[in-house]
# Entry
Amino acid sequence: MTKFLAILKREYIQRVRSKMFILSTILLPAVLALFGIVPAVVLSIDAGGPMRVAVMDQTGKIYARLDEALANDEQPAGPAEQLRTGPQMPDRTFLFEQVPAVGSDADAQRAQLDMRLRNRQIDGYLILPSDFMQQGKAEFFNNNPGDVISGGVLRRALNRAVREQRLIEAKVDSETRQALFQPVELKSVDLGAPGEEREGNSIFILVFGVGFVMYLAILMYGQIILGAVIEEKETRIAEILFSSVKPFTLMMGKLVGVSLVALTQLAIWGAAFSGFALYGVSVLASRGVNFSVPGVPFTHYVYFVLFFLLGYFIYATIYALVGSMVTTPQEGGQLAMPIILILVVSFYLFLPVSRSPDSSFSFWVSMIPFSAPVAMTVRIVTQTPPFWQIALSLLIGFGTVIGIMWIASRIYRVGMLMYGKRASIPEALRWARQA
Amino acid sequence: MTTDITVQLDRVSKSFGDFTAVKELSVAARAGRVFGLLGPNGAGKTTTIRMIVNITAPDTGTIRLFGTRIDAAIQDRIGYLPEERGLYRRMKIADQLRFFAQLKNLRGEVIEKRIDEWLARVKLPEWKNKRSMELSKGMQQKIQFLTAVLHDPDLLILDEPFSGLDPINVELMKEIVLDLKRAGKTIIFSTHQMEVAERICDDICLLNHSQKVLAGSLREIKSSFGRNSVAVRCEGGDGVLEDPALVSKLVRHADEAQALLAQGADAQVLLRRLIDSGARIGKFEMVEPSLNDIFITKVTEHA
# Structure
């Protein structure tokens, strides 16, 4: 045990102290902050002030509604809507000016508007033809057709204005109109244990998050584990180590040491993200948007952590196995490709499993160690399976981890005695037997 | 030291696929002595050592260390300097030594004390906090040696320990090895350089083609071969020394020659023939055969 700890400690301290680790740990949150905050700030900068728009309303009814609709548009329906439209638009984007349309010659009016547009006295003009209420076709002339944001806002406001006007003409009173425009809110509620309501959507995001972080961690650290296993072969230290420790102790020490490095980094990043998220939520809250943490029972969080660890270790040990067979990280990289494939496939299994979490298909994929981490997590949040299934899945999974490490350490031991030779798969199997 | 014999190999064999690395080897290394495992490259020395330190297991036969079968506790009593050397390139020397000592279950303050002592002993104390990649090859080799002795092992196994060292450092290391021997440690010393082995080994085992050719105390082996070698310094008389009836092997050095007498040949006859041939003799001395001569004689005998 002390030898195991010595190896683990060396592996951990050497890596955590390295410049690479310190840099990447700091850089990622910094870059994310940059990409997360800067665009929001940039978007909220309105370089040109409000857009001055002249409106030639040949229907004579819409102009008043338009102004009103635009004011309403600036208070989107719910948090989701608000998130989708992105950063808040400045309070008043448009400055309308009504151009008399009746009586005077329309063409002359247009020529004059063109002139004003060219002289930049206005930023655009809107023509609502007299059949606008029936045809619903309007024209918006402006200097900057690339400004999609303003175009979109204007279209929404017009839509609303026209609908409103049509309802007025249909003699619908203002109360009914308001009721008609009341947006719906779709809340997916799952009947869990009695007296317990869970919001499906955010839970799904949570599962997706667990799977995704696992996936990222494996992609990032698999290669490092592979390198760590090869290190002593490349530097010829393996022989001294094996005169002092068992290969299995060595491999486990390395695996756990590197994994703790990974978890340290993820924890730091996690803390940074939570910081951003809390900041984001508080900003949204100050604008009247409320978020609630999905109501997940505490045991589920424990399961998330356990299955995250399982998923990470299952794939990490395969990288260690590959490392035991090869002599350089480059060779290992090639051999590791199929691993990534299995990983991707098992990740996408969350779709069929989430649709029928109780099927026998779901049962089996949640027992197979390579797909269990994602599949079982999905099952736990959708229709929590009996405890024995969860326990069995964990048992099989961690048993597999130990088994793979045992095989890897045997291959490593024999492979080390044959420097400079990469093992073919049948050779590796023979080595595992004869060591 | 409870038993007189530290390492005992009994009919040990090991093969890799079709290749037999060690065949039916039985030897014993006695406590408090330097045991030389000698032979040309590929004779099976390294494989034998790897079996002793429990890196590979023999296919057949038994190995006993300190009177018992090898286990983890016994591994901690061994210090091993492999032929293939390596250190963690980016690790500081002190950290590195501490790590290897911990792998031998050495704990606490004593590690720090020994690190300082041993670094001073090999004259590298100022390198304590340098990374190993900053050290010269010879320095790295001395550090590597320290990883083998830091935990004060009872059995020290050195595979080609002097290769790549300059003469001054070879002397230094030799002194350390002999000091350890005086302190009662058993030392197994593997080399293909017979001259080196001749100077420090008490007992030897000659291996060739995976098999033991010869084993025993160096002194006894030498005396059993008798003084059948002559160191000659003379001018002229070349034809006489080349006569296969008298001399089976002739090695010429700068100003003298070493002649191994042919079987049944008499040194007195050789001397008389040289004088008769008119050669001027500066030196004519009966000497013990070198280990190299013995090895070559034995190997050719077996062939």
Q: What stands out?
A: The mean pLDDT of chain B is 87.
